[in-house]
Amino acid sequence: MILFGKVAILGTGLLGGSLALALKGSKMCGRIGMWSRSEATRRACAEKFRGCKVCAEISEAVKDADLIVLSSTVLSIPEVAKEAAKSAKQGAIATDVGSTKELIAKKCSEIFSKKGVAFVPSHPMAGLEKSGVQFAKKDLFLNAACFVCPSENKSATKAVAQMWENLGMRVFFKTPKEHDKIAAKISHAPQCLSSALALLADGDLDTFKNFAGNGFKDTTRIAKSDPAMWRDILLSNPKNISKNLDLIAKKLSGLSAAIKASDKKYIEKFLSRARETRLNLEK
Amino acid sequence: MILFGKVAILGTGLLGGSLALALKGSKMCGRIGMWSRSEATRRACAEKFRGCKVCAEISEAVKDADLIVLSSTVLSIPEVAKEAAKSAKQGAIATDVGSTKELIAKKCSEIFSKKGVAFVPSHPMAGLEKSGVQFAKKDLFLNAACFVCPSENKSATKAVAQMWENLGMRVFFKTPKEHDKIAAKISHAPQCLSSALALLADGDLDTFKNFAGNGFKDTTRIAKSDPAMWRDILLSNPKNISKNLDLIAKKLSGLSAAIKASDKKYIEKFLSRARETRLNLEK
Question: B117: distance to nearest CA of chain A, Å?
Answer without folding.
Answer: 29
